[in-house]
Amino acid sequence: MTEPASPAGQNEFAHVRKSPAGPWKRIFRIIRWTSYMLAIVALVLALHKAPPPLVETSPQAAARAEEKFEQVEKAVASGQPATLRMDETELNSYLASHLALAGDGTTKPVPGGAAQGAPQGATPTPQEVEQMRSNVRDVKVQLIEDRVRAYVVFDVHGKDMTLQLEGRLGAQNGYLHFEPLSGQIGSLPIPQSTLMSAVQRLMDSPENREKLKLPPEISDLRIQDGEIVANYK
User: Fold this and answer.
1) Phi, then psi, of 70 in degrees rounded to 5
2) Where do runs of H (alpha helix) occur along 48-79?
């Protein structure tokens, strides 16, 4: 007759049976907590407001930009081709004097219900785009050789967040075309594939397509030698 195993033996066998599951549990816990830590780091980076670029603005530069637009309008009205060249200081000064931003009290935010009722998808709805536009607090543009870098501060539930986009600007079949090269939200870089897909969806959206249509008199638009250059026919 076989004698029953002693308690010590039972504990030993129990330990042997449970040991294979132990390492997997520890690995799962490590992966889980690593995921939590990465998510927290990503959130902190996204909420970390990136410092604004150093761009110059002045009333004199804004006046020069206005004068250049008037000269181009006169040339086009008389049937003559013209070229508009604007440097970084003139462009930022013109934007600062003409953009109505949420931070200066000249715009009112779009009610949140309009965006909340919009269907969720990869492409922002017109209501969502309008809400983001109305919450923009600051815009700065850098012209670097043949590229443009935009720095935007917008309000999200009372918290300022920053978006930075860099790419090449141009005209394609009568429409404004933007080729993104890099981007980041706060201090968190946006993957290139995600950035390309998002910009492509925005530019192909029927709601945004007409907004990107250039005036018929503009034949070409580009960034060249740190200036924005527009050719009028």
Assistant:
1) -65, -40
2) 59-77
CB 182 within 8 A of CB 163: no
142 with 196: CB under 8 angstroms? no
201, with CB counted inside 10 A (0-12, 13-18, 19+), is middle
**Mean pLDDT over all residues of the chain?**
74
Give the angle subtended at the CA of 140 by the CAs of 144 and 108, to the nearest 5°: 155
Query: Minimal CA–CA distance to 161: which of 204, 190, 181?
Result: 190
Which two tokens mark 211? 């907004």
Contacts for 60-69 with beta carbons within 8 Å, 24 or more apart? 61/89, 61/90, 61/92, 61/93, 61/94, 62/90, 62/93, 62/94, 62/96, 62/97, 64/90, 65/90, 65/91, 65/93, 65/94, 66/94
Q: 46-57, pLDDT tens digit by residue?
A: 556 778 888 899
Whole-angstrom distance, CA of residue 207 vs CA of residue 133:
15
For residues 111 and 136, give the distance between their C-alpha atoms in angstroms, rounded to a whole number. Answer: 15
Domain boundaries, the chain: 7-47, 59-232
Q: Residue 83 pLDDT > 50, yes or no?
A: yes
pLDDT above 60 for 13: no
φ, ψ at 211 (rounded to 5°): -70, -25
Given a contact cutoff of 8 angstroms between Cβ atoms, the answer to whether 204 and 195 are in contact is: no
Residues 6+ positions from 191 with CB-CB distance below 8 Å: none
